[in-house]
């Protein structure tokens, strides 16, 4: 279908656009009262994710309310372990918990490489969202990076250190690779399914990249992200690896168009290290707690540093639930206005 607003796709391919496109990680979520209303109707997070009509509604909300240049399908990275056979529960306040985590090689018997059909509810939500968007903006599909998914499957919950997951890398590297390979294949099947269902571009979230050493990152994460990127060539790809400042040089030769930056990564330095890539990011989400004037200044400063091409505006990580929607809107509007003025 013809897209009325294809700024994101054009920018991802490095083409010149009339202004810098913008979308935000976690743009669908608790910052919007409209989201909270649907969430209450669904009662719990998983029902929301598994009911295509409701998932579609919250996916489209930020396009209507915030005016972002893309929608991202409402789901979670943890649907992959569940499809592989490891059920998760989303506990209020605490976050995701796996009652039955992977503890040893014996537990591999409990899981399998999942195919896209096992996540048909996400694919249905993508098809419905595409219909609902009716070509207004592109739809972003996504998955977690194998290392980040591995971390949750081993740890069984969120963690500051993920020391159980890291312990596996040090004590059972062969088993770790076996599990990472299963996750990688499941993720490839899933992303191919999302693209067939209508995703226009995909993002891989490596949220726990920053807890590995550079050598470990190469061996246990980048290797598998690379495998995924090499077999997905239907749409542009964004790789966002939180905290992986040490991997920017290798990222430059990854088979993807866009690299996401967090706010710790200096913009100019990142340009030097990754001349082949379009860059996405990278305002600290906490900057949106500031005054309207401060937010406008921060947005302009960010755009000045990135320049007018090869940039997709975003935050350096997801929005926090207590950030005011009007402040988010101020950031988005400033990026749109100032981005356009930069080209004149
Ligand atoms: O109802 C709620 O508000 C629960 C909060 C919530 C939401 C809105 C969770 C629980 N997941 C989501 C949706 C979600 N998760 C999206 C939706 C699309 C959008 O961005 O608008 C996406 C892309 C994710 C991806 C995700 N889930 C990541 C990667 C991105 C990141 O933040 O680093 C991770 C690590 C998760 C796991 C997860 N899901 C939810 C929580 C609270 C967590 C983190 C748990 C932890 O602290 O380890």
From TrEMBL:
Pfam families: URO-D. Its EC number is 4.1.1.37. Keywords: Cytoplasm, Decarboxylase, Lyase, Porphyrin biosynthesis. Residues 21-30, 140-156 form the Uroporphyrinogen decarboxylase (URO-D) domain. One of its GO terms (molecular function) is uroporphyrinogen decarboxylase activity. It catalyses: uroporphyrinogen III + 4 H(+) = coproporphyrinogen III + 4 CO2. InterPro entries: UROD/MetE-like_sf, Uroporphyrinogen_deCO2ase_HemE, Uroporphyrinogen_deCOase. Pathway: Porphyrin-containing compound metabolism; protoporphyrin-IX biosynthesis; coproporphyrinogen-III from 5-aminolevulinate: step 4/4. SUPFAM superfamilies: UROD/MetE-like. Substrate binds at residues 26-30, 76, 152, 207, 317. It is an enzyme of class 4 (lyase). It is found in: Cytoplasm. Belongs to the uroporphyrinogen decarboxylase family. Homodimer. Catalyzes the decarboxylation of four acetate groups of uroporphyrinogen-III to yield coproporphyrinogen-III. This is Uroporphyrinogen decarboxylase. It comes from Chryseosolibacter indicus. The gene is hemE.
């Amino acid at each position: 279908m013809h897209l009325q607003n294809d700024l994101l796709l054009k920018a991802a391919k490095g083409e010149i656009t009339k202004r810098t496109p913008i979308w935000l990680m976690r743009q669908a979520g608790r910052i919007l009262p409209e989201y909270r209303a649907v969430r209450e109707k669904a009662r719990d997070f998983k029902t929301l994710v598994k009911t295509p009509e409701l998932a579609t509604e919250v996916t489209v909300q930020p396009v209507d309310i915030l005016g972002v240049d893309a929608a991202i399908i409402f789901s979670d990275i943890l649907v992959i372990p569940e499809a592989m056979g490891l059920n998760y529960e989303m506990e209020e306040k605490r976050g995701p918990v796996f009652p039955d985590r992977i503890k040893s090689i014996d537990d591999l018997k409990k899981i399998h490489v999942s195919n896209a059909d096992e996540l048909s509810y996400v694919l249905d939500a993508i098809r419905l969202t595409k219909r609902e968007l009716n070509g207004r903006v592109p739809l972003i599909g996504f998955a977690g990076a194998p290392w980040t998914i591995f971390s949750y499957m081993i740890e069984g919950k969120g963690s500051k250190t993920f020391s159980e997951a890291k312990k596996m890398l040090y004590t059972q590297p062969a088993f770790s690779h076996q599990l990472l390979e299963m996750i990688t294949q499941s993720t490839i099947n899933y992303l191919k399914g999302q693209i067939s269902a209508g995703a226009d571009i995909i993002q891989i979230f490596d949220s726990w990249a920053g807890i590995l050493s550079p050598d470990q990152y190469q061996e246990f994460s980048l290797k598998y992200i690379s495998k995924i990127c090499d077999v997905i060539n239907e749409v542009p790809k964004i790789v966002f690896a939180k905290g992986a400042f040490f991997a920017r040089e290798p990222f430059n030769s990854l088979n993807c168009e866009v690299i996401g930056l967090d706010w710790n990564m200096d913009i100019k330095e990142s340009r030097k290290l990754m001349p082949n890539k379009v860059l996405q990011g990278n305002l600290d989400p906490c900057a949106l707690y500031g005054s309207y004037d401060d937010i406008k200044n921060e947005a302009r400063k960010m755009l000045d540093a990135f320049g007018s091409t090869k940039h997709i505006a975003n935050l350096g990580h997801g929005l926090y639930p207590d950030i005011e929607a009007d402040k988010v809107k101020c950031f988005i509007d400033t990026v749109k206005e100032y981005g356009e003025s930069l080209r004149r």
